[in-house]
Amino acid sequence: MSEGYTSDEMMTVAAARALTDGISCFVGIGLPSAASNLARATHAPNLVLIYESGTIGAKPDRLPLSIGDGILAETADAVITVPEIFNYWLQPGRIDVGFLGAAQIDKFGNINTTIVGGDYAHPKVRLPGAGGAPEIAASSKEVIVIVRQTKRAFVERVEFITSVGYGDGPGTREKLGLRGKGPRQIITDLGILTPDPRTCEFTMTALFEGVSRDTVRERTGWDVQFATEPEVIAPPTSHELAALRKFNASEKASE
Questions:
Q1: Can you list the domains of the chain with their CATH numbers?
Q2: Which residues are catalytic?
Q3: Average pLDDT, the chain
């Protein structure tokens, strides 16, 4: 990346820009939380952040360490029960955007956060698990995924589908009766992928400054396709970087 910011900072800024003011966003901890709070601190002050623990309209001044971090309840407009978050807000389609991370993701946007290698009972690696992510992926009006792009993470086919993207391709979500439209963007430390409207396969449609197609191919586990003229994403502004670094500094101070 260009001097002055890191690839992770560029990724987080790009993810924040994907959120518009006034919408509701169901937020995962980690990179999704960083991007969502950055959006609220910059261009989207009326973004409504919803966390799985039952907080609606949380406004933390540092990044929460978990969904149970007290700062979420202390700064929320309302705190409700977890069943109400899912049964009333999420499942009926009242959430505009679900914002998720991933351990593995495939070319159809299916997410694995469950196991790697072996079988479910005897995996080589047992990952953190599903949490609320399957419901978020199924029922949010649309989904954004943020994940660093490596061959280990970007695979032809995930080993376990924790959260459904487009399944095997066109028609899978409809066949399963899923309410939401599915993932509309995968934002990485190289650029942005969006689903092909015909095949549902994720295509590289935008690149960060200085990132080549060869680099993308080297760090993707399938034969990734590119838009004819991928957009070159503008670097972070000084305002975006200052806000992001303030959050990161506050998070480190709270550890």
A1: 7-254 (3.40.1080.10)
A2: 52
A3: 94
255 has a pLDDT exceeding 60: no
pTM of the model: 0.93
Alpha-carbon span 139 to 130, nearest angstrom: 15
Is residue 168 packed enough to be buried (19+ CB in 10 Å), middle (13-18) or exposed (0-12)?
Answer: exposed
Letter string b/e over residues 199-233, b meaning 16 or more CB atoms within 10 A of that residue's CB: ebbbbbbbbbeebeeeebeebbbbebeeeeebeeb
What does the block give as tokens for 209?
A: 């400054």
Per-residue model confidence as pLDDT tens digits over 124-155: 999 988 989 999 999 999 999 999 999 999 99
Cα 178 to Cα 24, 104, 106, distances in angstroms: 19, 21, 19
Dist. CA 163–CA 26, nearest whole Å: 15
Residue 136: which H helix or E strand, with range?
helix 133-139
Q: Which amino acid is at 47?
A: L
